Amino acid sequence: MAIGQGLELKQQQKLSPQQILTVKLIQMPVQELEQRVREELESNPVLDDTPVSSRDDDAPKDVSLTELEKSESAGASAEDSYTNYSDDIPSYNLYVNNWGKDERPEYNTFSVKQSFTQSLMEQLGFRNLTEHERAVGAFIIGSLDEKGYLRRDLESLADDLAFRAGIEATPEEIEKMLRVVQEFEPAGVGARDLRECLLLQLEDKKVSPSVDNAIRIVRDHFEDFSARHFSKVMARLGIDKDQMQAAMDEIRKLNPSPGGQIDDSYEDQAQQVIPDFKLDYEHGEFILSMPRFSIPELRINTKYADILEASKYTNQREQKEAATFVRQRIDKARWFIEALRQRQNTLESTMRAILEYQHDYFIDGDESSLRPMVLKDIADRTGFDISTISRVVNSKWIETHFGVFPLKYFFSEGLENKDGEEVSTREIKKALSELVGGEDKHNPLTDDELVTLLGKKGYNVARRTIAKYRAQLDIPKARLRREL
Description:
Elements: H1 17-26, H2 30-43, E1 47-48, H3 70-73, E2 95-96, E3 110-111, H4 116-125, H5 131-142, H6 154-165, H7 171-181, H8 194-203, H9 209-220, H10 222-226, H11 230-237, H12 241-252, E4 272-273, E5 277-282, E6 285-289, E7 298-300, H13 303-311, H14 317-357, H15 359-364, H16 375-382, H17 386-393, E8 397-400, E9 403-406, E10 414-416, E11 422-424, H18 425-437, H19 447-456, H20 463-472, H21 478-481
Parallel strand pairs: 5-8
Antiparallel strand pairs: 1-7, 2-7, 3-4, 5-6, 8-9, 10-11
Helix pairs in contact: 1-14, 4-5, 5-7, 6-7, 8-9, 9-12, 13-14, 14-16, 16-17
């Protein structure tokens, strides 16, 4: 077989340090951004956050850095424009103040539901455990799904602990720590199936005849109960219809998805949220703002320009080295200031596009007014990449006159109604929930009947779509919703 050499041309996009920094800042919520700005101020002496009104009159003023390195930057390419000063630098490239004229406006924080994982880890921290037990418990918590279930067998967890965490634990040790996790709130967490989840919750209840019967039903006759073979269950337990109904009432109060009691849907680990946007609606007009909170105004401290200026008239090695250091720090400061500005512009453009797209909804917060909207819709309106829109939307919140919402809330797919108009899946799910909520529980609606009823409301939905939405809403099949 002949071996030869050849040339192949490939296109590859390579992000500059400036672009990488901008991407990182864009995806940060305002709390993280504040911390990142503080870290940059501490690490880069060239950056200054002293308010203009607080400066001494004799202090150096903000000036253009144009003349500092013209001779060194001559012939620099556009690709090097972030590390050289070949062109005049407008004053706005030397500072950033994108949050309005006020110095340090106060802004409210809002309580949001605690992270599911965070809540369990806090409870783990209160237990008197060895370091090994705590590590195993933390791994179990990290292995729970969004509903709070442990869907993996203990042998697989033992292997994962060894390979991924370097922790050796037997299945028996893991089960022991699983029992500890199953004692945490919310009751039912850490269950391996629905039966165990319901039992954990029932055993957590105050003892009573109805609770005792409910435990016996779930523990000993769960398959018959799930299949709605109520007569068979009553006969085997030796209880009458009233006792069966009381036990079923206890079971009906249980939560089949304990993980859903604490919100992890937006992966937000904080218990307090500072909205990145504030929307007011006054006299028929929207007023959108991005409160600065405690993020300082940044500028380049121009006293370091004197070092660069002096270095041009000396041959001393120490001064030349100092000038090189200062030049690098000024470059880094410019990158950071420009990245902050681009973050501001990108977030504002994206939020305004969402506001325009969902105009009717933002007037009064009526969920039925939410239009179907996906990331591409906003990408097309702003000219940004879909990945950029995703980073903006992730972990960002807005305060409106009808509540505080994550930006992800406003996105949903759509279906056509009988008039050919596209409606949000959220609107259809709401209609589905209302139909199930108002049904006769002795004769619950089948999926085919739900298709017909939704069709009368103007929603053209297939039967398989109904089944999909039911699962997403945690609504059981008709036979499982039937009551005595």
